[in-house]
Specification:
The protein is an alpha+beta fold. It has helices spanning 3-9, 60-79, 110-117, 122-141, 197-200, 207-223, 234-243, 256-262, 273-285, 366-398, and strands at 16-17, 21-30, 33-40, 45-52, 88-94, 97-103, 107-109, 144-145, 154-157, 166-168, 175-176. One of its GO terms (molecular function) is ATP binding.
């Protein structure tokens, strides 16, 4: 339905969805729809309901594909019951459109946490990684591949009794064994900054590519940038990912070996998700410790407390005020459902005329233009100085 039709139906706070879920407030939204905080009037508990993007105006086949994707997300998430995964409670139909009813988990994502801390300590990230890997290992055992593991989908409770608890979310593009759709072949789906090399080359995502994506996400929150860096040219980034040549980590410390194992370019040489969990956990508990000590527990800092970045009382800065090449605002994306073979090869690294590096949708300022041209100006100055030195040398040589 259109925006006008939604308004006419009164979908908003206090709207009773599915005859059971009373909407309270909108928690967030994007291209795939909106997420609402709602009250389950039958069980008297708060839930999060995902209102999928409207199918009004779509042709019948595309509308049906959108509904099937939503139902697939609900089915896949419902197969996974784990302490470190957002629980799926129900799929409700409203006006013929499916709404997903999920566990309400007051939290902030690791992507939001990076707006506070820029980068997180390696030992804290190892705990997070082990817990997420445990949930994904269970998903893999159920035949489900997440396909979009990234900092934005890793949540940490920011208040109340579950403060510091970690959960993986958003199985919206996940696939279970046996799932087949017409758009599965040769297309890019997910976030290129966290792709595995084989997925960037056009292969289907697998359990091994989930391992790589988790390694990329953990690398990012420790180093402050993704393994392949940040590039405003998303196609150049995609082809760099396909080569599998990551920047050497500098801050990962005791987690380095585990992360490099997860970021092995050859998927056959990567650990399974369960092995990755064990390797990450051993970094925290030591060779004699028990892995169960950190599973199901909140994330703790070296001081033995839940870190400050996880607390709701620690505000998240306005991302619009961050530098253009910051970790979060600078992450590029590529349009979903774009075959890699149809994307142009990136041009050489030298661009002419120089282009300012700005966030998508932003207009370059005078300062941006000056920064872009600065290397050219420096080169011209050096050339002039060298020429002047050569002329002076010839003058001295010609003098009697």
């Amino acid at each position: 339905m259109s925006e006008q039709e939604r308004a006419e139906r009164g979908i908003g706070p206090e709207y009773l969805m599915g005859g059971r879920y009373r909407l309270r407030s909108k928690l967030g939204g994007g291209g795939m729809g909106a997420v609402w905080l709602a009250r389950d009037t039958l069980l008297h508990r708060d839930v999060a309901v995902k209102q999928v993007i409207t199918t009004a105006g779509l042709d019948p086949e595309e509308a049906q594909a959108t509904r099937e994707r939503t139902m697939r997300e609900g089915r896949n998430a419902a197969k996974l019951t784990h302490a470190h995964s957002i629980a799926m409670y129900d799929v409700a139909l409203e006006g013929g459109e499916p709404w997903l009813v999920m566990e309400y988990f007051p939290s902030r994502s690791l992507a939001q946490a990076m707006n506070i801390a820029e980068a997180l300590p390696a030992l804290e990230v190892a705990q997070i990684g082990a817990q997420v890997a445990d949930a994904l290992a269970t998903a893999h055992e159920a035949g489900i591949v997440h396909r979009d593991v990234k900092p934005g989908n890793i949540l940490v409770a920011d208040r109340g009794r579950p403060l510091g608890t970690v959960k993986i979310s958003d199985f919206g593009i996940a696939r279970a064994k046996g799932d087949t759709t017409d758009d599965d072949t040769g297309v890019i789906t997910g976030t290129p900054a966290y792709f595995s090399p084989e997925v960037a080359r056009g292969q289907d995502p697998t359990e091994a590519s989930d391992v790589y994506s988790l390694g990329s996400a953990l690398y990012t929150v420790i180093e402050g940038r993704p393994p392949f860096g940040v590039d405003s040219d998303s196609i150049a980034l995609l082809h760099r990912v396909a080569k599998g040549e990551i920047h050497a980590p500098a801050k990962t410390g005791p987690v380095t070996d585990a992360l490099l194992h997860m970021l092995e370019p050859d998927p056959a040489r990567r650990p399974t998700m369960a092995q990755a969990r064990d390797e990450l956990a051993r970094v925290v508990v030591g060779p004699a410790g028990k892995i169960d000590q950190i599973l199901g527990a909140p994330v703790y800092s070296a001081a033995g407390t839940v870190p400050a970045w996880a607390h709701r009382s620690t505000p998240v800065p306005d991302s619009r005020r961050r530098p253009a090449m910051s970790t979060i605002s600078g992450l590029p994306a590529v349009q979903h459902n774009t075959p890699l073979r149809n994307t142009p090869r990136p041009a050489g690294r030298i661009q002419w005329p120089p282009r300012p590096q700005v966030r998508p949708g932003m207009q370059p300022t005078l300062r941006d233009q000056l920064v872009a041209w600065a290397p050219v100006a420096m080169g011209v100055m050096v050339a002039i100085l060298v020429l002047a030195a050569v002329v002076a040398l010839f003058v001295l040589i010609d003098q009697p």
